[in-house]
Amino acid sequence: MSTVATTIFSPELAARFDHLVTIYPLKRSALIPMLLYAQDEIGYVSDAVVHELAARLDLFDLDVRNVLSYYSMLRTAPAGKYNVQVCTNISCMLRGGYEILDHCKATLGISHKGVTRDGLFSLEEVECIGACCWAPAMQVNYDFHDDLTPVKVDQILDEYRRGQGKDVK
Amino acid sequence: MPDVNFIVDGKQLTAPAGTLLIDACKASGIEIPAFCYYPGLSLQAACRMCVVRIEKLPKLQTACTTPVAEGMVIQTETPEIAQARKATLQLLLGNHPLDCPVCDAGGQCELQDMTFKYGAAESFYAEPKNHREEQKWSPVVYFDRPRCILCYRCIRMCGEGMDVFALGIQNRGASSIIAPNIPASESPDALAHVDCEQCGMCIDACPVGALTSGTYRYKTRPWEMNHVATVCTHCGDGCKTTLGVRATTDGTEIMRGDNRDKSGINGDFLCNKGRYAFDFANSEDRLTKPLVRQPDGVLKPVSWEVALDHVGKKLRELRDTRGGRSIGVIGGNRLTNEEAYLLQKFARTVLGTNNIDHHRTADYVTFARALAGKGARAASQRDNQTAPAILLIGGDPSNQNPLTAWNLRTDVRINRARLYVANSGEIKLRRQAKAFVQLAPFGYDAFASYLAGDDAAATGALEGGDATKLTSFRDALRAEQSLVILIGSELRGRALETLIEFGLTLPNTKFALLSDYVNSRGAADMGLLPDMLPGYVPVSAPGTFSEYNAPSAGADLKAPGFDLLETFDAAARGELSALFVVGANPVARYGVDPASLKNTFVVVQEMFLTETAALADVILPASNLYEKSGSVTNSYGDLQQVNKAGDRAGVRSDFEMIVRIADKMGAHIPSLIPFGKGLRADMGQTRGAQSGEADRHAVWLTANNLEPRVSPFDPSAILDEIQRLVPGYDLLRLQLISGNDQHLSPPADLVQIQTAAPRRDLVLPANDTLFTSGTLGRYSPMLNDLQAFESRRSEQLNQTAAD
Question: Are residues A62 and A90 in the same domain?
Fold first, then answer.
């Protein structure tokens, strides 16, 4: 069953998935892109997402969960509206990545993988996001912010808090 | 494959090309340790314990993934290798709790053995251990996460071996864990569970104590038990189960069931019933005192002497006043061959009746007749492991004969066997099938006719499907050169004959008829039938059994007696003076009206107060298959030895009770049980066929180098007689007593009797699931727990579906 009767996804995404399962020699190869797209739309990989993807790919739920739990960028609980991902890999670390992370923790009052009470922000310490030339860097949803200092971070977070930040999906 | 030569530790070895180094070494007695490698499952190379040095290769290689090659020179035990293995152990022990003194696996743990061998006792890892509470995944499967060494054996066993896929690996690196298929987020009690067949194979495969069994955990230690290998009492597959037993105040308690030495017909395999459902033997509800119904209608415990005396006197009186034909006998499917044989001999020679039957779960009479004189055409359970092609018609082995299902899956997976499945239901084995046809609900007879060439029968076999599928199915079968046909109990009588006739037109076909209980086949083989003597010898032409001369005068034992239903009809008419039931519960199984037995003297030998026992005038507390010795025949005709494992004060074996009742009836015991050195020859004192006969049994014993048995309670005495008289039971003693299975073919020279009326079809399949086992299963707490667990799960599923 590569199409499902009732889908939890938007018609566009459902159509995209219908196509996705047809383009790989093995259907299950479509699992990882599908997980990512599903997470972008739903916000996280819920049990309902697991059921539908398993049904679409003729897999057991367990197979989906096995893959899902392997990847740290896939999450099974809702993140904040703005997911702040601070890089602490080598270049960022040398240029003060941990200070940025600690500053975020102090400002937002949450730690790694935490979500603020109002659900506005969540914080993650992540591996290299490919912005080494402009370290230290962080990513808010899919938007990059680089050459950071604690002051700059405050400005950025404030912009998002006021709803003026870029919200790239 | 051609053989290749290679050198291991200076020894020149030879093995077929493609053999894995670890297997080649094992075959030559060189042990290479491994945690993740498990014969028959896919390769993982996860544990790095099997590393060896192969000359000309820069790094140590894993023996479990390296095929042997010509000229290879291998070292398996050098200081370098020992150091590598020690380092591996240090990593594994980094977060291992080292609770060996309480762990179930302590004493039989592969990690313990390896640590003992390579040392790694002192750890460089000084941080506190990362502890996690144990999880109860089901009533029988518990998981202790910190003990897990991530060898993946359980995952592969569950997926590849069982085709269940209930276990997976989640997260990654040091935080990897084994995860069951119902996550906490989807479980109403917010705890992770397994939705599976509860076979316990994951526990068996676990090299450490990470997976433990609900029945055994924290109860005892392996070295505190005696281990007795016997045959599981549940389905007709006849798996060997090794029971761990320990003495208690009132006998010997069975603590554990597993397939410890993997030496039986079942190899690695054991299902949940063989592994856990021995606990009925330890039940508090067991009868341990003989009960006799008093004139006021109350069952009162009495001494054995009083009870047996009462039964003997009463049966003798009823036989003498109302005739043997007024007495009915019903035997069980879990008796040993010796007991079943003795019971029918007792019925025929002491009670003087052919009114003997059992709960038939497959039509073995037709099966034996159809194969008579056709050579070695009966399949053994072992044929399922290697057959190139198998046809399964009817039955549902995954639920009713789990070992058969396991063997079929393994044969398909490892030998690429072609499995053909025809069934009215979508049974699970269709997933392994090369071809599957779904028959109409009662389409088996038509399907058999269709296979035999009657194209018109296709419409009856299918429910509106297209007949082209049937055609290709039949064509594929006809092209098979060596086919094993497994037949479910749905096929009986004429349809069974038709199917076997079809099979016999193909070359090298072998057949097996699946039945439901451990000795269903044996009960039929041993003549618990109103019209058949042991070995399917018709009562009208007793042949070798003519030495059975009925002592009770006037009994015409050449006419078939009442079958099970006729017996109860006779009771309802008031014509049944006595009913003797041994290990059976016909009242519940056949819905017998209790009132019909009110004028019948009912004697029941039983473990529990079943529906039948509740109606009895005398209940004699019986031991079960785990508490006696003897032999049983599985549904394929594989004969195996049963050994006494458990014991319960107060109960007696069915064998002993029958002998004692016969004695109390005044029967001549040496003719019932051939024991002792006394001369049974007829020196010409009598007239008739037996006049001047030698003591045939003694002559036979001498010819077979056997000593006479010293006790009338020794089942081997009856085994001697079975071997001497029963066609097809030409068994090998050494094979039997060394605990091996041997395949018995139906007798080659069966007398073909043309009966005017076709035999009545009295087959009533038990339709047991993985979590039921007839009346006996109701008294197994673990089976009840599993049923409750399963029904809670399906309730939730239904609820979710309704939402």
Answer: no
Q: How far is CA B729 from CA B637, B698, B801, in A?
A: 10, 18, 54
183-212 of B, contacting A, C-beta below 8 A: 183, 185-186
A91/A151 same-domain check: yes
Percentage of chain B exceeding pLDDT 90 = 79
Tell whether A99 lies on the interface with B, counting CB pairs under 8 A: no
Tell me, what's the pLDDT at B759? 72
CA distance B46 to chain A (A): 17
Q: What is the pLDDT of residue B552?
A: 45
Residue B604 amino acid letter: V
Per-residue pLDDT tens digits for B350-385: 999 999 999 999 999 999 989 888 878 999 999 999
Q: Are residues A146 and A100 in the same domain?
A: yes
**Does the residue A63 lie in any domain?**
yes
Q: Write the DSSP symbol of residue B233.
A: S
pLDDT bin (cut points 50, 70, 90) of residue B120 is: confident
pLDDT of residue B751 exceeding 60: no
DSSP state string for A92-156: HHHTTHHHHHHHHHHHHT--TT-B-TTSSEEEEEES--S-GGG-S-EEETTEEE-S--HHHHHHH
Query: What is the number of structural domains in chain A?
Result: 2
User: Of A70, A100, A119, which residue is a domain's last?
Assistant: A70
Query: Which structural domains are found in chain B, ordered by start?
Result: 3-77 (3.10.20.740), 130-282 (3.30.70.20), 364-513 (3.40.228.10)
Q: Which two structure tokens, joined as six digits, stand for B169?
A: 């690996």
Q: Among partner residues A47, A60, A66, which is closest to B186 by beta-carbon distance? A: A47
Give the global pTM.
0.93
Q: Identify all chain B residues contacting A76, using CB atoms and an 8 Å cutoff.
A: 185
Give the domain extent around A42: 11-70
